[in-house]
Design a protein that fits this description.
By secondary structure, the protein is α/β, with parallel strands linked by helices. The protein has a domain of about 180 residues: Rossmann fold (3-Layer(aba) Sandwich). A 7-stranded mixed sheet has the order 3-2-1-4-5-7-6, sandwiched between helices. β4, α5 and β5 form a beta-alpha-beta unit. α8 packs antiparallel against α9. The longest helix is centred in the N-terminal third of the chain and has 14 residues. The mean pLDDT is about 90.
């Protein structure tokens, strides 16, 4: 499996990151999921704020958001949206005082390569007892149609150790080790879209997977090509499938 994106790679993709991940419309949807779970009277720490697109949507809904991200390129865009309420910082070594935060969020962070134990450890450290860490995973509910079966198998082959898995079954035990109790999911938001098997094969061949920051190295090229061949061999490969995914929020609470 290729290594996760580096900070330099995030800097490089920053100019096109938003539009490649659904743009303002998708960010607004994430904000609508998070907002009912947040206290508007208290600041929100966005861990891995990225370009600030979700934080800006939360701000528009009355929340005061401060953000941390390791990529200066992504933060340049976040700063344009949020001003001086963002800072360069590692999610695994937050520049935040212990027990100073009531609520924190992360959207599409924990699949992209950070040390998840360190991230949860830091979230637990900066949260006050009873504080909550809300996480929207990148993978969410994966489609299980004929396209999904092939792509999901490819993702599992590229990630045999599950380092990119960011669902509850993977993250809950890690969080518990660091003093965060997994309370379950909330604000599930199903979405539908259309894509044909041939278009999915073209997308995979052109540079990566749709689940986020997932570079594919040369050693994985045979796996990728085999998946594309299987997609093109499906019945009616030019006919779009109506596909359904579900985004949701995972809730973790600081014990003690």
């Amino acid at each position: 499996m290729a290594s996760p994106f580096s900070t330099a790679q995030f800097d490089e993709i920053a100019p096109v990151y938003d539009e490649s991940r659904g743009g303002t419309a998708r960010a607004a949807g994430f904000a609508e999921q998070l907002a009912p779970l947040l206290d508007p009277a208290r600041p929100v720490l966005d861990i891995g704020v990225g370009t600030g697109i979700v934080a800006a949507e939360l701000t528009a809904r009355g929340h005061r958001v401060v953000g941390i991200d390791l990529s200066p390129g992504m933060l340049a865009r976040a700063r344009a949206r949020l001003g001086n309420r963002v800072a360069v910082g590692d999610a695994g070594r937050l520049p935040v005082r212990t027990a100073s935060v009531t609520q924190a969020v992360s959207t599409w962070l924990l699949h992209a390569g950070p040390d998840r134990r360190a991230v949860f450890g830091e979230a637990a450290r900066v949260l006050r007892p009873g504080g909550r860490y809300l996480v929207i995973p990148a993978r969410g509910g994966r489609p299980t149609d004929d396209i999904g079966r092939i792509v999901n198998e490819l993702e599992d082959q590229l990630d045999p150790e599950g380092t990119r898995q960011d669902g509850p079954e993977t993250l809950a035990p890690v969080a518990a080790e660091r003093g965060l109790v997994y309370e379950g999911t909330a604000s599930e938001r199903p979405t539908t879209f259309e894509v044909s098997p041939r278009d999915m094969a073209r997308s995979l061949s052109s540079g990566g997977l749709f689940t986020g920051a997932w570079p594919v190295g040369a050693e994985d090229a045979p796996l990728l090509e085999r998946a594309c061949e299987r997609l093109r061999a499906l019945p009616d490969p030019e006919v779009p499938r109506v596909r359904t995914m579900a985004d949701f929020v995972m809730i973790f609470t600081r014990t003690g």
